[in-house]
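Entry 14. Ran structure prediction on the chain below.
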Amino acid sequence: MRRLLLPLLPASLALSACAGLPAGQAPTAENTARLPVVRIGEPLPAGHAYVLYFPAGTPLSIRTVVDGSAFAQGGTSTLHVVLKQGIYGYRQYASLDRKHWIPWQQMLSTRVRMHIPGQDGKDAALLHLQVDAR
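Output, structure tokens:
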């Protein structure tokens, strides 16, 4: 297959450790003000009672893994990306100011594309993750 388009939920990309939790009402500023804020990269507290912060201007690690029964040898790599604006995450919600919370998919649009072979033919495959602010 020349081109395989894979859907990806916006909360993936590790932008929300708790994205799989059942949907509910958006949190209020009062609810989240009582919770500890954990910067990405710091140890996560037990449970889901914390706000995760992805700071702007700071390299954020994204680990990629390719494996499976089709490979004699899989591989991993780590990419470093930098956000333009800091984002707070709480369960399946995101906020820029920790006061107004919206579902992640309303804040970020995420698209994954895979080309086999890579577009220029030099690589076996190209995996492209595109994340856009809405």
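Helices lie at 29-33, 104-107. Will compare against last week's run tomorrow.
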